[in-house]
Amino acid sequence: MSVSKERKHFSKGWIVLAALILGGCQSSPKHYQLVGTVMSKSVEDAEIVVDHKDIPGFMAAMTMPYAVRDAAGLQNVQPGDRITADVVVQASNRYWLEHIVITDSSGRAAAAANAPHELQAGDPVPSVPFVNQDGKALLLTDLKGKAVLLTFFYTRCPNPDFCPRISGQFAAIENELAKSPADYAGTRLLSITLDPTYDTPAVLRKYGLAYLNNNAAAFEHWEFVATSPNDLRPLATVFGLEYSEQDNQIAHSMNTILVGPDGKVVKTWPGNDWKTSDVVAALRQAEVSR
Known about the structure:
With 290 residues, the chain is an alpha+beta fold. It has eight helices and 14 strands. The strands form three sheets. A seven-stranded mixed beta sheet has the order 7-6-10-9-8-13-14, sandwiched between helices.
């Protein structure tokens, strides 16, 4: 993958595919050799994202985040660097990098020049075309005038702590907003699939109904949508998402974004550890600011 297509942040513990591949527990740590290119790093999270080659016995070639237990290596490494490192895999599917060695730093300038812009609070959201669960066209900018909460998911997600959990949190928010006609009228929820090829309108509709207690009328407020694969990557990038697909599974980070009635980003919640009560309060605050 090119550096220009890579994002700059992942939430810890997001990778679904790694858990599926690693499977059972090991009684003692195992060590593997990683060779790849650093796409981004987070000093705060002690984590780097690496586009790496096959790691025999551990992981196919892909782009994914790794925790780093090498303070000097984390400080020295930069996006664009080619590196080698030890992957240490412990019981319960825990894994991290040690002994990072920079083998080529000539890619730093290109990585910095091609770094994509992640939307920040106050930035307008792009006008991206979607198709919803009923096969109807929708533009993100069509929702101006409403406070919109959006997130990313895919219907085949096998991990209950990822997409099903996010969808369950959105269902709780949907139920809470429905208690107030004013709140309901001034807000919208949007779930964007990361698997547009498989998640057709019919699949999205069936999935959505499971979280809406089979109340199809609620699709007027909470829509499940897909965009084209070509539009999905840049959209996910500006909203702080990274994902990769292998064997019908999608490894992805998680972000939930609040867009104000003016069509500008208000707030972002990384991961899925946020409280629904806090998000509902932020939605209500954004809605009354119209």
